[in-house]
Amino acid sequence: MRSFDYSRLYDKAWDTDILNLVAKIHECKGRQDLFIRKKPVELDRLVEIAKIQSTEASNKIEGIVTTSTRMKQLFEEKTTPRNRDEDEIMGYRDVLNTIHESNEYIPIRPSYILQLHRDLLKRAGFSYGGHFKNVQNYINETKPDGTVVTRFTPIAPCDTPDAVENLCNAYVRAIANEKIDALILIPTFICDFLCIHPFNDGNGRMSRLLTLLLLYKNGYNVGKYISIEKQIEKTKDRYYDTLEESDAGWHEEKNDPIPFIRYMLQILLACYTEFEERVGLMNESRNGSTAYDKVKKYAEEKLGRFTGADVVAHCPSIGRSSVLASLKKLTEEGVIIREGTGRNTLYYRADSK
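Structure tokens predicted for Fido domain-containing protein:
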């Protein structure tokens, strides 16, 4: 069985771009702590928006979907799940809430990972929730012609409990030694977790929940306010490509985790950048900017098409009705152009044509 020894990372020569990403995220973390200490009321709205986006995006990656309207109703507890997909969506929401609220009391141990997996699948009633896999699973790729090719064969079911135990122990030791940055260790742990693929179902969703948990436990709280899962879903092809690069030779302990490390650092930095942009809009609000001013600023800086929901998410201090009124005024003024109607409405800058 593969050994999990992160000491090999201690003496590794890291590429300059990796080191720069780590340094930039450290700087963002320092500013993050300052923003959070100020605790503007609007941050609470960011939390609720991020929860919905994280739950929707992480499940969407796995083909588990519902409508945006249903998603909002489910989160506001104005309705109950009406099918298995919605049960699984709400299971993700449950575990996400647990991690947001109790991360400091969730150690990185197999028993706790199993409990999180149990809660993820509890609403859907899957009997294998909270248990390691009992059949061999495979990571397959479907070619354009419909042919299915096995891209990676994870660890066998009989070896899975020991592998997860060794993985957790290796991570805990490496964090305690403080010789390698947590920002390097976290994606390495997640890459190894996905190569083990310890469950019959839910491995991808669990990996993203564990990413959030590990970031929380190391003081990187941006996932509370900005959806890391949404950033991953938006770049899903790169997500899978970098995982494929990083798991080549994994069983022989010859794999290189750097492509996945680089990708996850870029995702995290993008989340911090978005967080600071939204906090900047909040500050403008407190300095007297109107709803119209903020929506106009968003539109003028936005590349490509966007929806009313995108504006609401980026301007959490403004109500939906004010956003829509501002978009209507901007359309009438010729600043932006509107396409479609109802839920299919899109906007883009007039000067882009």
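The chain is about 60% helix and 5% strand.
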